[in-house]
Amino acid sequence: MSEDATVVGELDPELRVMLELGEPDDKNFIYCAMCSHVITSASEKINVAGAHAHSLTNPYAIQFQVGCFRQALGCDISGQAEAADSWFMGFLWRYASCTECHNHMGWYFAELSGENAFYGLILDNLQEEQPRA
Ligand SMILES: [Zn+2]
Predict the structure, then answer these.
(1) What is the arithmetic mean of pLDDT over 86-95?
(2) What does the DSSP 8-state code read for residue 12?
(3) What is the whole-number distance in angstroms between the Cα of residue 52 and the centre of ligand 1?
(4) pLDDT digit string (tens) for 46-69?
C-alpha cells in the first residue's frame, strides 16, 4: 500500500477558473474602494446614451458620478426592479452592492423586455489600481 497522496490529478475546478482568468494585471481589474474585492474590469466599460461616465442626481439631490459597465461579477443585485426615477429611459433599476463588504456600489439597469442590461457603478466607490497587500 502506498501512502503517496501527492498524485497530480485533475485541477480543482475553481483553480482552473482562476487560471483561465490569467494574471490580474492583464485584465485591468477594477476593485471595491472599501474592501478591494474585484468588482469588474476595464474591458467591461461601455458607453450608454453616448458616454461611459454620467453625472446623475437622485431625487434627494445627491449627485453621483456613475460609470457604465457591461458586466460586474463582483456585485450582488438586490431589491425589486423599479421604474420610478430611472436615469435611463426605458430601463428598470435594482441595487448593486459589493458581494464582499455589501457596500452600495451602484445600480443594475435592465430593459423591461430583458433585452439589454448594464451596471451603473458609482466611480467614487471603485478603484482601478491594484490594491496594496
Ligand atoms: Zn467591497
Answers:
(1) 93
(2) P
(3) 22
(4) 999 999 999 999 989 999 999 999
- CA-to-CA distance for 128 and 93, rounded, in angstroms? 24
Of 130, 87, 133, nearest in space to 106 by CA? 87
What's the one-letter identity of residue 36? Answer: S
- Confidence at residue 85, expressed as pLDDT on a 0 to 100 scale: 85
**Paired residues of 68 in beta bridges:** 120
Domains of the chain: 13-127 (2.170.150.20)
Separation of alpha carbons 116 and 49, rounded Å: 13
Query: How far, in Å, is the centroid of ligand 1 from the Cα of 104?
Result: 9
State in Å: Cα 31 to ligand 1 middle.
8
